[in-house]
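Re: the 375-residue chain
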Amino acid sequence: MAQGDSQAVIDTRITCAADESIRTPQSTAIMPTARTKNRRAEKDRQGLAIPTTMKVAALDRFGPPSVLRLHRLPVPKPRPREVLIALHASGVGIWDASVRDGSWRPYQRVEFPLVPGTDGAGMVMAKGARVREFQIGDGVYAIDFSDPQGGFYAEYKVAGVQNIASVPQRLDPVEAGALPVPGVTGLQAIDDHLRLRHGQTVLIFGASGAVGTLAVQFAKRVRARVLGTASGRDATTLVRRLGADAVIDARSEEGIDKLHSLVPDGLDALLALAGGEALEQCIDWVRRGGRVAYPNGIEPEPRKRPGIRFLAYDGMPGPREFARLNRAVVEAELRVPIAAEFPLAQAAKAHQRLERGHVLGRIVLRIRVAKLSWD
């Protein structure tokens, strides 16, 4: 594909369509090793070159994707318990579209130009005087929902140490940029809210999306029986190859009939990542005493039923949560499906793609073409 106006999709292991794939984990050494201590110490002494300004994709008013345009802003400076990250990749989520159009305002006070983006990954370039957990040159990922200094659609981002974590060796920089919000959202659903156990049956409703593709793998990690919903051949193929035991199209009568035949005694748990009538028909097959979890923001919200526990939740970041996520990445041998990559200058096109729907995995902004040298 041409690199200019077209979206770039790189090396894939499982290809579901021209712009929907699972990328092969790279061998880039991300975590610090004994061999890098001397170089790391030298980096800490010398620091790394940091420009005074940076490119960002920002909006000057709320509106459609076209309001996202390139701006140049000052590079923020880290406070005592913050680090400055040179971003390699940033995730693009449906919640970003809600920030862009003004329907969700996580900031106490809106100031334009507003830089969206809730998560991403890159390299620590500078750190505050009281930061001991991370060193200059470390590969990290981060989540930040409401930083008044701006989001992750930028070349540089400051983040507090409580909001960042070291990148697991298994993931390359693009996968690491796509992981954070879907990762904590999917893992906390499976482990904390549904409390899924070996041998239980769970339905992931919306299994081909950014959260669903990871939730399928987290559920298989605890040896659950995993069913998923997906529509279309590409989505069905993707979910199956991620480990789902069966995949149904919940929009069709045949799909609901198939669900009945798969779970004659009912579902133990259901993770709802989309709303609507098809979801309600699936909830009919949750057994009495079963559990339904869904992230806040799912619309329409699932209709409550007697005898079933409904749990609305938010994926919460934090050091303990990130440590659990990193362990789960290794245990599940996690693959992070990348639906499409766009350069920072094409953030508006990334949002246009997002709004067309049927995104298999996650869309990312690739901030830097060249790989960062993590070690």
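The longest strand covers residues 82-92.
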